[in-house]
Amino acid sequence: MRNIKIIILLVAVMSVVACTKGTYADELKAEKATIKSYISRNNIKVLGAMPKDSVFAENEFYKTEDALYFRLDKKGTGKDTVEIGNKIHIRYKKFDLSEHPDTISYWTTSEIAYPTSFFYGVTDDASCPAWHLAVGMMQRSGAEATIICPAILGFGSDQSPLTPYVYKLKIKFNKQS
User: What is the pTM of this model?
Assistant: First the structure.
């Protein structure tokens, strides 16, 4: 009898916990609201097409078909453009979309100027889909961009619960690496 009471209690607790989390659809709705609020608070103008000259006015972002918001802050240098398989060295700042964001920064370190790297176009744990999309639009070494990244394009850890982030990125690469 005691075991049955424990089982009933466990089922009841699990039911309450499962019901309070909400559905995936609820999480998607909340994520979209978070992004919309961030865009509104920061007076961001969302463009339906990338500017032809890749020059963005202040607070302009291009929204891709994948729902990534992209802004090229600084064009890169040189004539080489990124190609699939190039090793991309990246500095980044990552912060959440709250009014007082938490920031994770890999912008500079005393030991390594570009502390993170990944191979463009190759899925791995060192990068997320948003970075690959952004690098494809950044194109040149030394380019800097800001992206608003929905959870589906982020790292696996951003998936539960769905957490969108803003990244400030700076890339460096050369054809030999």
Answer: 0.82
